[in-house]
Amino acid sequence: MITPASTLLTHDSPNRALLVIDVQNDFIPGGALAVPGGDEIVPLVNQLGRQFERVVLAQDWHPAGHASFASSHPGKNPFEVIELSYGPQTLWPDHCIQGSPGAQFHPDLNIAHAQLIVRKGGNRQVDSYSAFTEADQTTPTGLAGNLRERGIDTLFLCGLALDFCVAWTALHARREGFATYVVLDACRAIDTAGSCAAAMAQMQAAGVQFIQARQLGGASRGALPDVVA
């Protein structure tokens, strides 16, 4: 159920930013790690981008032979879970390899005014779902400091996939002290082995707010949107 929506004027709110997570070819149907319906969100993400002056793009950017790839572990298959030095790791098909067509942003993604691209997953031995912190939970990307230096304290997230990179980014945003909203209709999930329900519960417990895109943009300065109930 969605409560009656108020609106948010984003373009004149210097403390707010949009984080667009991993809208890349390998996560689109036909890609190496396709998220069902991943292509459907691109027009909506573009629309959201036009409502924000401050936009950050996150980009999965793995070296070949990354530890999160099933192909790096003989006898293992994609979506199996193994233990690495930092804890449980879901194994994935090879995807978003640095410089490959699959790692590029979707060709219809059009947010030319984005100020920053955060590339993650470049450490061959450690995965990085989050745009803030690698999967070892200690190695920062530098995003939090960048946002704070620009006076940003409120974040709106969209992209792929809701139950992994969006969720981890949202959880780490809350851990860093940012007010955090996930725009649900501008996300899609992989949803393997109940991962979507688990991620939603974790985000809610951490204080992440869930909204719809229609609840953004339009009226009085400073008004925050009502949330999905």
UniProtKB/TrEMBL annotation:
GO molecular function terms attached to this record: nicotinamidase activity
Membrane spanning residue stretches: none
One Pfam family recorded for the sequence: Isochorismatase
InterPro entries for this protein: Isochorismatase-like_dom, Isochorismatase-like_sf, Isochorismatase_Nicotinamidase
Enzyme Commission code(s) on record: 3.5.1.19
Pathway: Cofactor biosynthesis; nicotinate biosynthesis; nicotinate from nicotinamide: step 1/1
Statement: the UniProt record of this protein carries the keyword Hydrolase: yes
Residue ranges of every copy of the Isochorismatase-like domain listed in the record: 17-214
Keyword terms of this UniProt record: Hydrolase, Metal-binding, Pyridine nucleotide biosynthesis
Family: Belongs to the isochorismatase family.
PANTHER family in alphabetical order: LD05707P, PYRAZINAMIDASE/NICOTINAMIDASE
Protein name as it appears in the record: nicotinamidase
Lineage: Bacteria, Pseudomonadati, Pseudomonadota, Gammaproteobacteria, Pseudomonadales
Gene: pncA
